[in-house]
Amino acid sequence: MPTRYLPLAILSAGLLFAPGCKQDTPHASITGTIDGLYDPAIFLNIPAGDTYNTEPIPVKDGAFSWSGDIQEVQRLMLRIGDKTIPLYMDNSAVEIHGHIDSLDQLRITGSAPQADFDEYQRSLADIKKEGQALTDQWVKAKDNDSLKELIRTKFDSLDEVKDERTNQFIATHPGSVVSVSLLSDMALVGDPTLLDSLFRKLSPAMVSTTPGKALQERIAVLKKSAVGQTLMDFKQTDVNGDTVRLADLKGKYVLIDFWASWCKPCRAENPNLLKAYNQFKHKNFTVLGVSLDEKKESWQQAIAEDRMPWVQVSDLQGFQGKLAQEYGIKAIPCNFLIDPKGVIVARYLRGEALEEKLMEVLR
Predict the structure, then answer these.
(1) Cα–Cα distance between 86 and 114 in angstroms, integer?
(2) CA angle 358, 279, 305 (to 5 degrees)
(3) Distance from C-alpha of 325 to C-alpha of 290, rounded to nearest angstrom
(4) Final residue of a domain: which of 225, 251, 275?
(5) Triad 314, 316, 318: Cα angle to 5°
(6) Which of 62, 171, 200, 289 has the highest count of CB atoms within 10 angstroms of its CB?
(7) Total domain count for the chain?
(8) DSSP string of 107-136?
(9) Does a structural domain hold residue 230?
(10) Alpha-carbon span 133 to 127, nearest angstrom
């Protein structure tokens, strides 16, 4: 929020501190109308540390209004039905208008940061259009594996273009909270070196914000698991209750795989992992599964169902577990490939990328 300067005459007259005088506390407001919205309320999620405070906003005839104090410019989330809309604002008056059938095209005015986000969204419009076309092709492909593989390759190319445009937006908008939010999203599974490089481009004002400080701390944690770092020894309990140490596997290439029984992408990747394990297990390679489950029964059942023969460990503390916290694991599947000396040589290897990397290092 820009600094406001009071006239010198007012300051010298002491009116700012005169009895009975009080500065109004700045407030944020959201008003709007969404045609076709019949829900009794929508919900505003306001950041509060690592979580959100949720405030219901009553709706009548599609109209709604809210007011409150936003301590600093940041990203809020407006939940309308099953749709969540990012809302960037500070103590400003925001207006929202649109139709329930096109919530991705809402007109949101009154917030400069939101205008930045709209600019970013426009830069991705062609990618989203092409992505939807590829999704339609994927559905029609059904059991045509060769066609699906071609479509998957095109998806990967689209992701690369999106990443390039996102990086460019951050570099050219160092003073926007949108850049901080985009970097924070990237920091879930991003490359620490790239994240640090982009973070250094942010303005001092953005670095000093609450999300800016949290992002800086997050990057520092991720650096512990960057390629080239030595993974420190750790110990956890296996399915039989025995203690397993990473040092027990020293001298081998080890893929440390973070997963959980409830994680659908993890379970979908397990056949590829099993294939790689069987292909390279006699070439000084193994896998160490680290489950972020909280229920032992679910963990054991998933191991049996997916026929995973490698060592599995877990402290059954989910994302709050010591190892997940130590290495900043906030999204799964996630993995690190370490060499016989314990040095990380690759991260986030999936599908063909895993096979190609193992062929490279084990040849």
Answers:
(1) 9
(2) 110
(3) 13
(4) 225
(5) 100
(6) 289
(7) 3
(8) EEES-HHHHHHHHHHHHTHHHHHHHHHHHH
(9) no
(10) 10
In a domain, residue 119? The reply is: no
On the CB side of 125, how many CA atoms lie within 13 Å of its CA?
A: 7
CATH number at residue 36: 2.60.40
The answer to whether residue 200 is domain-embedded is yes
DSSP string, 47-81: EETTEEEEEEEEEETTEEEEEE--SSSEEEEEEET
Strand 83-89 relative to strand 51-60: parallel, antiparallel, unpaired? unpaired
Tell me the C-alpha distance between 257 and 265, whole Å: 13
d(CA 100, CA 211): 31
In a domain, 239, yes or no: yes
Cα 160 to Cα 171: distance, rounded to the nearest angstrom: 17
